[in-house]
């Protein structure tokens, strides 16, 4: 079951952040309801762009982390 965790704005677009499973999120562009990719909040972070480049998906994830739109658990390295 997926849960919307919030919205973030990056480069003039708004993205819905959806928790897919524990530690895995998808970013959906609101203007056309297009899923742009998925990312993880578990170290090391993983990015899987679908309808954007990896740089943009990393920025979306960074903003989501910074604005507490994701869960993050510090794990020993």
Q: What is Rg?
A: 11 Å
Biggest sheet, strands in spatial order?
A: 1-2-3-4-5
Shape: globular
Q: Ranges with pLDDT <50 over ≥5 residues?
A: none
Strand portion, in percent?
A: 35-45%
Between the first and last Cα atoms, what is the distance in angstroms? Answer: 30 Å
* Mean pLDDT score: 89
Task: Specify the oligomeric state.
Answer: single chain
List the helices and strands in order: EEEEEH
Which percent range fits the helix content? 10-25%
Based on secondary structure, the structural category is alpha+beta
Protein model, in words:
The protein is α+β, with helices and mostly antiparallel strands and 77 residues long. The chain has one domain. The protein is built from 1 helix and 5 strands. Strands 1-2-3-4-5 form a 5-stranded antiparallel β-sheet, with helices on one face. Strand 2 and strand 3 form a beta hairpin. It is globular, with a radius of gyration of 11 Å. It starts with a strand and ends in an 11-residue tail after the last helix. The model has no long low-confidence stretch (mean pLDDT 89).
Outline the secondary-structure elements.
Layout lengths: L2 E8 L2 E9 L2 E6 L4 E7 L6 E3 L4 H13 L11
Antiparallel strand pairs: 1-2, 2-3, 3-4, 4-5
Task: Give keywords.
single chain, 77 residues, alpha+beta, five-stranded antiparallel β-sheet, 1 helix, 5 strands
Compact summary:
By secondary structure, the protein is an alpha+beta fold.
């Amino acid at each position: 079951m997926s849960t919307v965790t919030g919205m973030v704005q990056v480069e003039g677009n708004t993205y819905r952040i959806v928790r897919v499973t524990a530690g895995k999120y998808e970013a959906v562009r609101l203007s056309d309801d297009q899923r742009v990719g998925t990312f993880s909040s578990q170290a090391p972070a993983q990015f899987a762009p679908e309808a954007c480049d990896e740089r943009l998906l990393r920025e979306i994830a960074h903003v989501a982390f910074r604005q507490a739109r994701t869960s993050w658990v510090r794990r020993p390295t």
